[in-house]
Sequence to fold (254 residues):
Amino acid sequence: MTSLKSSLRNLVSAVLDLLYPNFCGVCGSFLFREHYFVACKECWEENFTPYTGEKCSICGHPLEFLPGAPDICKRCLEKKRTFNFDSVSYFTLYRGLPEFAVKELKFSRLKPVADVIGKTISNHLLEVLSQLSVDLVVPVPVSKETLKERGFNQTEEILKGAEIPYVSFLEKPFTPEKQSTLSFKERSENVRGVFRIKKEFRMGLFGKSVLIFDDVFTTGATANEIAGLLKRYGARKVHVYTVCYTPFNSLSKK
Ligand SMILES: [Zn+2]
Ligand SMILES: [Zn+2]
Fold:
């Protein structure tokens, strides 16, 4: 029975390949029965790689693009910036294949990409969790509207792929105005009060070290808002981990 099932599955995927041919987003090669990969295995491994440069100790920005002091970026140094979170870690930069993959996942609703991203970042995320002695991982939630439209919350799906336990104790009762063209200040106002801690978890954060997990760090407004909320409920430390980090110079508005 099992072999019949698997040959049926192969037949179905072969027919799907013919009906909906898929190509690697990097080299253009045909992705035979790999509909969930947005790139072929070779291109994925070559392009979805960790960022290993120095990072700003306050906002996490790659220092090579905004050099300031030895461990602080120019913006944090000049504006004396502070955030509610204690650290920012991320796997890679939001450009090239990682950017393409995250966009396909979110906007083309290509859910299986989450699994591939999760498996790619898993070891790195585990290392960060152990270095920072994190007690709880919380994925950034999406609103009910987004969930209905997309069918899934990408941050939870990536964590499932990474096999990292998490607790979804946050909720986002509504979707604020689209964020992509706003500055940090505008985004901060936009996300104020947008997140809530589910009632049953409100007492459980006291003294905990929590890690907020998100797909992309853009200006930090979302992470900052959530970190402030968690600290008001007694979290001792709040760290941030995202799959991708958007360097300042690639933001459309400053
Ligand atoms: Zn390729
Ligand atoms: Zn900085």
Notes: The first strand starts at residue 67 and ends at 69. The chain has nine helices and eight strands. Strands lie at 67-69, 72-73, 87-93, 136-139, 170-171, 196-197, 209-217, 237-245. The radius of gyration is 19 Å.
